[in-house]
């Protein structure tokens, strides 16, 4: 195995191990998100995309080279030449086996490289979604508590309004009763005033009659005095 295919094989083994580590169930996506946000990763993040696409280009080139070797050693001419010599036949099949092996190694490396990138992206998205979900859940809980508090306040206000309405109804009923009482007292007072006016009129009439009677008696008294004085003069 040449140096380049040895490097691709080790890269494939590293991808397998890293993908298996990413798939460990007891390591949550939030922890992976914290790992991916370390300072060293934030420092390497500008170069990560370039490295990713560079590896894709290198693996694609090696994959195409492996396809070319497979087509080269599986064509009719190498097989026809190998049938003439047994040693050449084994050599051609060995080359074909190596080309197919390199093809599989490079293909799986390219596939796992894309899968690893997708897994890392999904883990970050799941972690961010969980954080956003936790924030939304906290907001929903706060909104629910606020709604409950407003509902309690509304209930308290409704109770206060009902009590105020009841007290106002009681006050209005008391005022109506007092008004009716005052109206009845006013009627009684009016009747008393009318009776008083009638008695005053009667007393005025009686006083006028007494004044006339007093004047009459006074005239009679003067007449009697005059008669008596006249009789006294005659007797003398």
Automatic annotation (TrEMBL):
<keyword id="KW-0931">ER-Golgi transport</keyword>
<comment type="function">
    <text>May play a role in anterograde transport of membrane proteins from the endoplasmic reticulum to the Golgi.</text>
</comment>
<dbReference type="GO" id="GO:0006915">
    <property type="term" value="P:apoptotic process"/>
</dbReference>
<keyword id="KW-0813">Transport</keyword>
<feature type="transmembrane region" description="Helical">
    <location>
        <begin position="47"/>
        <end position="67"/>
    </location>
</feature>
<dbReference type="Pfam" id="PF05529">
    <property type="entry name" value="Bap31"/>
</dbReference>
<keyword id="KW-0053">Apoptosis</keyword>
<dbReference type="GO" id="GO:0006888">
    <property type="term" value="P:endoplasmic reticulum to Golgi vesicle-mediated transport"/>
</dbReference>
<dbReference type="InterPro" id="IPR040463">
    <property type="entry name" value="BAP29/BAP31_N"/>
</dbReference>
<feature type="domain" description="Bap31/Bap29 cytoplasmic coiled-coil">
    <location>
        <begin position="178"/>
        <end position="236"/>
    </location>
</feature>
<feature type="coiled-coil region">
    <location>
        <begin position="165"/>
        <end position="220"/>
    </location>
</feature>
<dbReference type="Pfam" id="PF18035">
    <property type="entry name" value="Bap31_Bap29_C"/>
</dbReference>
<keyword id="KW-0256">Endoplasmic reticulum</keyword>
<feature type="domain" description="BAP29/BAP31 transmembrane">
    <location>
        <begin position="1"/>
        <end position="132"/>
    </location>
</feature>
<feature type="transmembrane region" description="Helical">
    <location>
        <begin position="103"/>
        <end position="120"/>
    </location>
</feature>
<dbReference type="GO" id="GO:0070973">
    <property type="term" value="P:protein localization to endoplasmic reticulum exit site"/>
</dbReference>
<keyword id="KW-0472">Membrane</keyword>
<feature type="transmembrane region" description="Helical">
    <location>
        <begin position="7"/>
        <end position="27"/>
    </location>
</feature>
<keyword id="KW-0175">Coiled coil</keyword>
<dbReference type="GO" id="GO:0006886">
    <property type="term" value="P:intracellular protein transport"/>
</dbReference>
<comment type="similarity">
    <text>Belongs to the BCAP29/BCAP31 family.</text>
</comment>
<dbReference type="InterPro" id="IPR041672">
    <property type="entry name" value="Bap31/Bap29_C"/>
</dbReference>
<dbReference type="GO" id="GO:0005789">
    <property type="term" value="C:endoplasmic reticulum membrane"/>
</dbReference>
<keyword id="KW-0653">Protein transport</keyword>
<keyword id="KW-0812">Transmembrane</keyword>
<protein>
    <recommendedName>
        <fullName>Endoplasmic reticulum transmembrane protein</fullName>
    </recommendedName>
</protein>
<keyword id="KW-1133">Transmembrane helix</keyword>
<dbReference type="InterPro" id="IPR008417">
    <property type="entry name" value="BAP29/BAP31"/>
</dbReference>
């Amino acid at each position: 195995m040449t140096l380049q295919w040895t490097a691709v094989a080790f890269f494939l083994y590293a991808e397998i191990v890293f993908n298996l580590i990413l798939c460990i169930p007891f390591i949550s996506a939030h922890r992976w998100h914290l790992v991916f946000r370390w300072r060293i990763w934030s420092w390497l993040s500008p170069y990560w995309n370039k490295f990713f696409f560079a590896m894709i280009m290198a693996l694609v080139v090696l994959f195409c080279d492996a396809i070319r070797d497979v087509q080269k050693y599986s064509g009719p001419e190498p097989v026809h030449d190998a049938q003439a010599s047994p040693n050449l036949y084994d050599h051609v099949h060995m080359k074909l086996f190596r080309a197919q092996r390199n093809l599989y190694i490079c293909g799986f490396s390219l596939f796992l490289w894309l899968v690893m990138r997708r897994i890392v992206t999904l883990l970050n998205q799941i972690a961010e979604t969980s954080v956003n979900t936790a924030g939304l859940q906290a907001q929903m809980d706060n909104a629910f508590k606020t709604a409950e508090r407003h509902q309690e306040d509304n209930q308290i206000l409704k109770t206060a309004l009902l009590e105020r309405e009841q007290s106002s109804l009681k006050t209005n009923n008391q005022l109506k009763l007092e008004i009716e009482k005052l109206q009845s007292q006013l009627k009684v007072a009016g009747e008393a005033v009318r009776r008083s006016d009638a008695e005053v009129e009667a007393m005025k009439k009686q006083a006028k009659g007494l004044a006339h009677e007093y004047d009459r008696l006074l005239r009679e008294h003067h007449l009697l005095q005059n008669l008596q004085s006249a009789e006294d003069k005659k007797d003398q």
